[in-house]
Amino acid sequence: MADREPVNVVPEAGRKRVTLRNLLTGAEQDLLVDAVVTENATQPLDEVYFELKAASVNHGQYDQQALVDGRLVLPELNPEGQFKLLRIGDAVAHRGLHAALYDALRFSLPA
Description:
Layout: E1 4-12, E2 15-22, E3 28-33, H1 47-53, H2 64-68, H3 97-107
Antiparallel strand pairs: 1-2, 2-3
């Protein structure tokens, strides 16, 4: 569950009730589990992305279905934008290097 983070763990009847929060939507979910194992990496390093977003041509957005189809389509939302911006790796969520490299590979498709 790489897109969720634990926000609360309490004992319940010899097990543990875990509250998980979705990193993208903020929605919370309770699960009753036998054990809790966490990976304690860094928080997303997204400050630079958000600082640059307004000055970009595409405001950091892309067409997700086009990417699934093997094409990179960036909407032109800011005609005065100075560059194209994409959010990858640790700017998205704390993940391993392999995920950042995979993001970069997907976004290197011809636009």
